[in-house]
Every structure is written in structure tokens, then in C-alpha cells.
């Protein structure tokens, strides 16, 4: 489901409730998390969605919002990068993998995306496992590529090319 103004309060509560675990991996989680900042971010993403440059979605499970999965799209190069996070209480049900498969296929069909990427900290095994379950191939590691607080994480880059198999 698309992230809209009405989802902001719940998504803000989820981000705050999960902030300690999100701060380990996410640069955006380092600062104070305010509802006003989230509303502004959602608005920018929705404007990019109108322009065909973003698909900002929320993950719903049993009627409750539990996380987000979104895609940043480069329509000129026909590429996209997926990003996601989930409430700790919703982990372990395959939600990100299921939503990721739907979003991957939607990007290929509706936006004519040819190449998708997922970038995850090397130590973030859960995020890397999602990429692998979605059929993405580990293509390499960027050393010290992601500044998160006082640390810099090595980033595993996963790629998916529409119409190819992992051995191509």
C-alpha cells in the first residue's frame, strides 16, 4: 500500500519504537525522529512517485502497519534500488520477502526497470537474506561505504537483472 499522510503517525510510532535497532544500520535513524520530518519525507517521496522516480509503500500485516519497503527509480537508466525496514514484532513471517517480490515484479512490469539493487551492511544478515531470497546476486562489497553514526559499514551490493538467471 502506498505511504500517504494518514500512515505517517503509525510509521512514526514504529520508527521510534524500533530506533535502537534501526540506528545500527540506517543513517537516517541517527537524528531525532519527529512526525513533522516524516510527513515532509513522505511528501517528497509521493511527489517523486508522481514523477515516476519512487514507489513509497508501507507493509501491512493482519490490518496493521508494520514497516516499509520502497524503491528509488532512475527512469533514464531503468534502474531501481530497494530499501526496507520492519517492526521487530513482525519479523520472521516472510513479510519483507513477499512484499519485495511484489514490488520487484511491479517495477519490472510497470516502470520497465531492467536492473534492481539492494545494498545492505555486510553484518546485516537479515537484510542480506531478503536480497538472496528475492533472487538477487551478491555482486561485490563496497568498503566503508555507508557512514552510520561514528561507524562506517562495508556494503554488500546485490543485483537483479530482469529476464536473467543468477548464472547469467
Question: In summary, what is this structure?
Answer:
With 168 residues, the chain is α+β, with helices and mostly antiparallel strands. The protein is 33% helix and 34% strand.
Reconstruct the topology from this structure.
Blueprint: H1 8-17, H2 19-23, H3 35-50, E1 54-61, E2 64-74, E3 79-86, H4 95-110, E4 115-121, H5 125-133, E5 137-148, E6 151-161
Explain this structure to me?
Helix content is 33%, strand content 34%. The chain has helices spanning 8-17, 19-23, 35-50, 95-110, 125-133; strands at 54-61, 64-74, 79-86, 115-121, 137-148, 151-161. It has a 6-stranded mixed β-sheet, with helices on both faces. Strand 5 (137-148) and strand 6 (151-161) form a beta hairpin. The longest helix has 16 residues, at 35-50.
Given as residue ranges, the uncertain stretches (5+ residues, pLDDT < 50) are: none
Q: Strand fraction band? A: 25-35%
Distance between the termini: 33 Å
SSE series: HHHEEEHEHEE
**Number of β-strand runs:** 6
Assign the CATH architecture: 3-Layer(aba) Sandwich
Features:
single chain, 168 residues, alpha+beta, Aminopeptidase, six-stranded mixed sheet, 5 helices, 33% helix, Acyl_CoA_acyltransferase, Ribosomal_N-acetyltransferase, GNAT_dom, GNAT family protein
